[in-house]
Amino acid sequence: MQCQLDSKPRWERRKDARPQELLAAAIDLFVERGFAATRLEDVARKAGVSKGTLYLYYANKEELFKAVVRESIVPMIGEAELSVAEFDGHSADLLRHVILSWWRRIGSTKASGISKLIMAEADNFPELACFYREEVMYRGTRMISSMLERGVNRGEFRALDIPQVTQVLIAPMTMLSTWKHSIAPCERCDLQPEAFLEAFLDITLHGLIPAVR
Question: What pTM was computed for the model?
Answer without folding.
Answer: 0.85
